[in-house]
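Need residues for this backbone.
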């Protein structure tokens, strides 16, 4: 009896900025389940300056740097206002919801989420269109539970990661020499990073990552 070694899985991730309307159209083209060689959504980051924060919102506030001599805030930034009172600090955040991160800086709300982690609890599978829209609803509900009010449809798309899982016959390490030949014309080899089980090449607008997907 011949024993076949367990296949390894590598994740190729592309990060780029896309128009907001392409998010749902792209999600609509994905297939459900854990399909190998199917391109899927990974991380999504959206931003907005139009938001309100309720009093006693579930947010951790990082205070501004304090001058040791005067005891005064060096950079007293206003994060948001509750009526006539101001809430000051460097930033406020909540990372207590699976697959969702919320960060407020002066005048800006950043929402970072991974639809795969929200729906499945991991990034080993990719959502389809219906599941993607379900993850959006979960993000909206999580914001409301925290105490943040905003209209996600009016948020601007800041970043989207596309990913593809590939099963290969050999271990990740045997492919590292091949990664050294990856050099698109619009990307300099100077902007590449090699680590154990990880390769990345990037420019100011896009990056490609190849890594050994543990647990796959």
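Answer:
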């Amino acid at each position: 009896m011949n024993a076949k070694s367990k296949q390894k899985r590598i994740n190729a991730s592309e990060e780029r900025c896309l128009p907001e309307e392409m998010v749902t159209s792209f999600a609509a083209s994905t297939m459900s389940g854990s399909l190998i060689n199917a391109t899927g959504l990974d991380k999504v980051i959206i931003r907005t300056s139009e938001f309100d924060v309720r009093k006693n919102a579930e947010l951790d506030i990082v205070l501004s740097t304090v001058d040791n001599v005067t005891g005064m805030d060096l950079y007293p930034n206003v994060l948001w206002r509750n009526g006539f009172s101001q809430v000051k600090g460097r930033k406020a955040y909540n990372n207590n919801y699976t697959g969702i991160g919320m960060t407020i800086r002066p005048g800006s709300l950043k929402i970072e989420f991974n639809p795969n982690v929200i729906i499945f609890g991991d990034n080993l599978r990719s959502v389809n269109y219906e599941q993607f829209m379900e993850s959006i609803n979960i993000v909206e509900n999580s914001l409301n539970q925290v105490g943040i009010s905003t209209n996600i449809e009016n948020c601007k798309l800041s970043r989207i990661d596309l990913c593809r899982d590939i099963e290969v016959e050999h271990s990740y390490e045997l492919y590292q020499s091949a990664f050294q030949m990856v050099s698109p014309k619009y990307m300099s080899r100077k902007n590449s990073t090699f680590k154990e089980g990880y390769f990345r090449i990037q420019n100011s607008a896009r990056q490609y990552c190849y890594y050994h997907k543990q647990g796959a």
